[in-house]
Design goal:
14 helices, 2 domains, globular, Exostosin GT47 domain-containing protein, three-stranded parallel sheet, signal-anchor, about 40% helix, alpha/beta, six-stranded parallel sheet
Length: about 375
């Protein structure tokens, strides 16, 4: 019993640390060497210096917004803040991997001069600190076929080939070997045909599940949270939030996924017949997303399916969870939830700005690698001499 509780606690701690790393508020010295922190000078958790100067390549619409719908494909070029099409409201589960859209939109936004921004677009590539590649590789996979034999998949492959040819002709890509280039690949099958060719760049991913260590790692890449599909709960201010949520545990989603959905099928049997537990098979249609939103807002806990499969264990653990501890965690989530919002125009310390902050922190390593590669490069005059 205690062993299982310790395992659950370990997962919670790892989750909170992961969130803190993404938010940019973790300073390991303050955890392990608190005496090194000066009590007279409070450290700002969000200070990050001047905004990152980013040059965004001007790619044809077929590489980005042209995949959103036919009207976007036929729209005026280039894409600007004035003609940027909004993300489609009926995109369903595709929205999960739309980080690429929000990153591009944040660079198109000119701002009003008063807000704090983590990244700004520059028109002169010589003045740029980083280069953004606006290829919607996740949307390309979702739009142009879902398997290797689908004829439409050839469109996705062709776009990857054309983009790689474009980058290889860019003197800025050649200059750094792509190390200071930022490329979103949040869907696990994004850029699947040629992704190894871009393994030196700063990739925006959601996990490393389908990436070999030689291609993607936390040392050079940035992990992005999924863009949430359900609407944000902006008025979650009940006097008694715990008692106002009558459902103990909620899940509504696809029950056939990885490994043929073995875990989710078992959970359906384990959790059936419990009055305050809602476990339902569903697909991401606009109507179902609305129903899922309502269900999540009336629940104390929402299920992550890869948890305990022992009958009764999970529900009993949640019933014993102290109300005051639940309320405290609820308050903490409200304090950091704005860091996980993706919106246009972007707002201070929202999801897209937190990602640019992490990109900024990866660049010193990239610049060091660029410097080393230049030192090791054999000069042209030496090659001619030989």
């Amino acid at each position: 019993m205690y062993g299982k509780a310790a395992i659950c606690l370990s997962f919670v701690i790892l989750f909170l640390i992961s969130c803190s790393i993404y938010v940019g508020t973790v300073d390991l010295r303050s955890y392990f060497f608190p005496l090194l922190q000066s009590p007279q000078v409070p450290r700002s958790l969000c200070a990050s210096g001047p905004p990152l100067r980013v040059y965004m390549y001007d790619l044809p619409r077929k590489f980005h917004v042209g995949m959103m719908d036919r009207r976007s494909f036929e729209g005026p070029a280039p894409v600007t803040a004035d003609n940027l099409p909004p993300w489609p409201s009926n995109s369903g589960i595709k929205k999960q991997h739309s980080v690429e859209y929000w990153l591009m939109a944040s660079l198109l936004y000119g701002g009003n001069g008063n807000e704090d921004r983590e990244a700004v677009r520059v028109s002169d590539p010589e003045s740029a600190e980083a280069f953004f590649v606006p290829f919607f590789s996740s949307l390309s996979f979702n739009t142009h076929g879902h398997n290797m034999t689908d004829p439409e998949t050839e469109v996705d492959r062709r776009l990857q080939v054309e983009l790689l040819e474009f980058l290889q002709k860019s003197k800025y890509y050649q200059r750094s070997g792509g190390r200071d280039h930022v490329i979103p690949m949040t869907h696990p099958n994004a850029f699947r045909f040629l992704r190894q060719e871009l393994n030196a760049s700063i990739l925006i991913v959601v996990d490393f599940g389908r990436y070999p260590k030689t291609m993607s790692s936390l040392s050079k890449d940035v992990v992005a949270p999924y863009v949430h599909v359900v609407d944000s709960f902006t008025d979650d201010d009940a006097l008694d939030p715990y008692e106002s949520r009558t459902t103990l545990l909620f899940f509504r989603g696809n029950t056939v996924r990885k490994d043929q959905g073995k875990i989710r099928i078992k959970l359906a049997k384990i959790l059936s017949g419990i009055d305050d537990v809602h476990y339902e098979k569903s697909v991401a249609t606009p109507k179902n997303i609305i129903m899922s939103t309502e269900g999540m807002r009336s629940s104390k806990f929402c299920l992550h399916p890869a948890e305990a499969l022992e009958p009764g264990y999970l529900v009993n653990q949640l019933r014993q969870f102290p109300k005051d501890r639940w309320v405290e965690m609820w308050k903490q989530l409200k304090n950091i939830s704005h860091h996980f919002e993706f919106q246009y125009p972007p707002k201070k310390e929202d999801g897209v700005n937190m990602l640019w902050r992490q990109v900024k922190r990866k660049l010193p390593r990239a610049q060091l690698a660029i410097h080393r590669s230049r030192r090791l490069k054999v000069p042209d005059w030496w090659q001619r001499r030989r």
